[in-house]
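Re: How this chain folds, sequence and tokenised backbone to follow
How to read it: Take the token row as a discrete description of the fold.
Start of record: The labelled sequence and token lines come straight after this line.
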Amino acid sequence: MEANTSQEPSKVPEIETDEFEDWFEEFTHLVRSGRDEEIVQQLSGSHYADFAEVLHELEYDEAFYVFRLFQAERQSEVLVELDEDYQSEFMERLQPKEISTIFELLESDDITFILASVSPSKAEEVLKILDREDSQQIRVQMEFMENSAGRIMSSDFAAVYGTDTIRKAVSKIRKIAKVVDDIYTVYVVDQDGRLMGYLRLKELLLTNPSNKINKIMIGSPLSVHFNTDQEEVARMFRKYDLVSIAVVDDKDVMIGRITVDDVLDIVQEEASEDIYRMGGLSEDEKLNTPVFESLRKRILWLVVNLATAVLAASVVSLFEETIQKVVVLATLMPIVAGMGGNAGTQSITVVVRNLATGELTLNTWWEAVRKEISIGILNGLFLGILTSTMVYIFKGNLVLSFVIGSAMFVNLFIAGTIGSCIPLLLKILRIDPAIASSIFVTTFTDICGFFFFLGLAQYFLSYLN
């Protein structure tokens, strides 16, 4: 139960500032001293997102203690803003009745997301005590594919019939608004629930109350099927500047809606996921993930990297005698391989990003490949000349400078070509380009860089001694 206080509520200072550090130190002292009324006074005037950030700074026990001081309405706002680890921890500690009270204040998409982070037994325990209709809706929504429109939609939306008058529609929306938050768009459906069109609240307010909805609605509305991937949904919001979109089933019956705040969460989630995957990490890994669990998730890709490194080393072993005769080659060959790897990573980043945003498709692949090949050639010419000049200045050997300059040119050309082609090939094979591209490209550039550099050195060996 939220404590009462006659003092004015305070706001949480901006996080990552000196002011916040001082405030948080004082707040932590209040928590550890059990001064409940002062804790509530410190947080009651804050935005729920700031409230959640404060809880993230606390240990689980302390965070849950603070969370329990507030009423269900405040708890529901904050619970949605917490990260998955804290949501899961709190859900395991809360009693089913408490969870039921909180869930009555949330939309179906938020409930579905939160239940997905807890154990199946806990989720089932909670579903059993929810209202029967709500429980059935959540069960249906949890059956949809992960990361699909059906999984992230809210089943609460404002809809009227095309045959309704404006007066009747406004009366319906007033009732709907009591249970549905953020009504951006009013959808128009037929008697079977099939989506016909939509209209904005402004049109309802400015139109003659006796007019029919189907006379003023906007037809051919944008919608997504419940199996549409969430990344595609985000692309549609960005392309058409949407604030809300309808979700339909196989028969075009409207079953939910997705709003812009859901899409912002998707964009952040997908961006984080791509960054993790490009580093060979699981998107589920967090700072507080147990050490051995993190090890298990990372070790596979490190073993794959080890295998590719051994492959590159085997190429070097073919030229051991050449390296023994011209030891300076050992100091220069990492430059060629390293520059190829860096250039390849640049190409991967551009292609993977444009694939993710939809700006690059399999139908326009040649445009991206041609551009990256051109950049590879130009990079190769510039850096090849620059490297050969530097080697000549420091080593005084014209042939050695020619060898490294030529190898640099070839490897950067290969880096641009392979760096743009590998992500597209993986996309065709339905493998996430973000997670596998870098390994293949680095392997190619290492092998090709070592082979061309040492191969040319061996060919011109008599001029290098």
Notes: Confidence is low (pLDDT under 50) at residues 1-8. The longest strand covers residues 254-259.
